[in-house]
Amino acid sequence: MGRNRWGWASNRRLGSNRSTRSTRSAKLIGLVTLVVFAASGCTTDQALHFGWPPAITPQGEKMRQFWMYAGFAALIVGVIVWALIFWTVAFHRKRKNAPADELPRQFQDPGKLELVYTVIPFVIIAVLFYFTVTTQNFVLNKIPNPDVEVNVVAFQWNWEFDYKGYHTPDGQDVKTIGSSQEIPLLVLPTEKVIQYDLLSTDVIHSFFVPAFNFKRDVFPDPSKNNQDSSFQNTIDQTGPFVGRCAELCGTYHSMMNFEVRALTDDEFNQYMKLRESIDPQTNQPYTASAALTKLGQDDPSCGTLCTPYAVTTHPFDTDRTSGSASQDTGLNTGDN
Ligand SMILES: [Cu+2]
């Protein structure tokens, strides 16, 4: 039995035991990985992106790609570290019959090794930092003249969307305000640069559209709070997408929902033309739902995109007698 450079015993028989053990470990790791993926019910795409959902904006997709590559980088580092740990544990244990005071070869001042494990993490951090900054710059980039600019006003507990540069016949800005009965629709065009200017009239809210993979806090007095309160993006898919308030802002925070309705540019222009004109049925400017109804009547191919009310979420029922608990107990109904 000879001694290897680590000072521990080794021979051929030991070597063959080792290879059997490695094969067994590899099989076990493979099986565990397979079970984890199969049991999670993830598609390959979801698994590759570590659960991040696809986005409907190039900005959101960029972050999703970054997340995926950062995950791969972390996994590669993880696999190397795990391999070193298991290799040490499996093949560099103290022999059973080794003398109690026997020590493996001792290293003094392993300068080259120290250099390696200082330089490699530094390179990893530098690469991650580079991609973090370039992704962030892409996501937060703003051009001077966006195609559409919307004031997003958050208040307890709803939203107002105020379109800059679009006016009703009486000179007011075209705006959509949510109520307890109606979810506000933020109608927007696809393939255009949209700027969102965020403002709160009371507490801190947060503008969150899950399909954007992006959210930003909505502050009162953003300039006094030293906040850049606007961002831009481009939506590349038509459809209805739910929006939420993502900052606990009071009693009805969870009901503070809205819907982004992304139309084609052509449909959006028709929608805005209606919003800027008088609805003959009411003699008032077209509301969001009336304009969408008219759009759907004029062009039946618009389909669900022209549904007059939100389809991704529904208004909170403010009738306190409607809860099953109240009906069962007679509490809060005022008529017991
Ligand atoms: Cu809120």
Shape by Cα distribution = elongated
Query: Which fold name corresponds to the CATH topology of the largest domain?
Result: Immunoglobulin-like
**Which CATH class of the largest domain?**
Mainly Beta
What would CATH call the homologous superfamily of the largest domain? Cupredoxins -  blue copper proteins
What's this entry about, in short?
By secondary structure, the protein is an alpha+beta fold. The chain is built from seven helices and 14 strands. The longest helix is centred in the first third of the chain and has 34 residues.
Structural commentary:
With about 325 residues, the chain is an alpha+beta fold. Helices cover about 40% and strands about 20% of the residues. A five-stranded mixed β-sheet has the order 5-4-3-7-10, with no helix packed on it. The protein binds copper (II) ion.
Give the helices and strands, then pairings:
Blueprint: E1 2-3, E2 9-10, H1 12-40, H2 44-48, H3 58-91, H4 111-140, E3 148-155, E4 158-167, E5 173-177, E6 185-189, E7 193-200, E8 205-209, E9 214-218, E10 230-234, E11 239-245, E12 257-263, H5 265-275, E13 278-279, E14 284-285, H6 288-298, H7 324-329
Parallel strand pairs: 3-7, 6-12
Antiparallel strand pairs: 1-2, 3-4, 4-5, 7-10, 8-9, 8-11, 11-12, 13-14
Helix pairs in contact: 3-4, 5-6
Copper (II) ion binds at residues 154, 205, 245, 247, 249, 253, 256.
Descriptive terms for the model:
5-stranded mixed beta sheet; binds copper (II) ion; disordered N terminus; 336 residues; Immunoglobulin-like; 2 domains; alpha+beta
